[in-house]
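User: For a benchmark we're assembling, each entry needs the component sequences followed by a predicted structure for the full assembly. Here are entry 17's components. Please fill in the structure.
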Amino acid sequence: KAGVTQTPRYLIKTRGQQVTLSCSPISGHRSVSWYQQTPGQGLQFLFEYFSETQRNKGNFPGRFSGRQFSNSRSEMNVSTLELGDSALYLCASSLNPTSWTGGTEAFFGQGTRLTVV
Amino acid sequence: AQKVTQAQTEISVVEKEDVTLDCVYETRDTTYYLFWYKQPPSGELVFLIRRNSFDEQNEISGRYSWNFQKSTSSFNFTITASQVVDSAVYFCALRGSARQLTFGSGTQLTVLP
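Assistant: Structure for entry 17:
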């Protein structure tokens, strides 16, 4: 059974550009969450999608957005990139949304390492 | 608001030593879940264990064991007879009514041969 797949693994962008990251969840999983990991702020929740709808959102500016497709694959977009957006972006998939049960396990991908120069 | 504190930033042990990673949490929720994840150099977070707030039974799984104490808001993780492959960053996380995972800052464990 394939795990969570994130593409690309590494990305270098220039300040002011926009970027789109992709996440394919484990087969059968319908919920996808995104997290940002930086040395300074640690792991922070961005948002969660289930059935193509955003179910929960963290404290990030509107430059960070996402969407989910009917096959549960998700994309995350960051517009007008800033140097501080350099981070490891992790995607996690769950069988069901955490709004149904807080105990649902989240399985993470290897992440996309974004560097903004 | 909820918070997870992992006071140990880095720990180094010699192979075969036992090591305990500390985790202290804060939440006003009466129902919540606690998790431990391991992050090897490859980057992905590997799920290790989940506990709910009503289950204080401690657990042993092979060389791993967990000690959940609600009275002290702690959920500590012990590796017995550590191995070099255990070297990784370990994260404790909490999920309460807010439903997103709140992570601690992580503990870098280095097991020396």
